[in-house]
Amino acid sequence: MFYTYILYSSSLNKYYTGSCQNIEQRLNDHLNSRSKFTRTVKDWEIKYFETFHTRSEAYQREMQIKKMKIKKMKSRKYIENLIAIKG
């Protein structure tokens, strides 16, 4: 099983989107300074995730979410809507 996930840091008020095979281990990596973007704070929490059968599917979904910024859409609003729907 593979995952696309969204983390949130309340101290930064930012979201982080990624994909992985082991979501618990990946969160641990983020909390223990093994990721450049997330190393500045230690309050990341999983707010949303989707499961996929292949790494490729999970990565494609990660890129789809991240491309919202490129399309000048409100990526934060899109992410918050995903989280609200999964609720």
TrEMBL record:
Family label: Belongs to the UPF0213 family.
Membrane-spanning parts: none
Domain GIY-YIG: residue ranges: 1-80
Lineage of the organism: Bacteria, Pseudomonadati, Bacteroidota, Flavobacteriia, Flavobacteriales
Name of this chain's protein: GIY-YIG nuclease family protein
Highest taxon in the source lineage: Bacteria
Coiled-coil annotated residue ranges, if any: none
PROSITE patterns in UniProt: GIY_YIG
Organism for this UniProt entry: Flavobacterium fluviale
InterPro entries per record: GIY-YIG_endonuc, GIY-YIG_endonuc_sf, UPF0213_domain
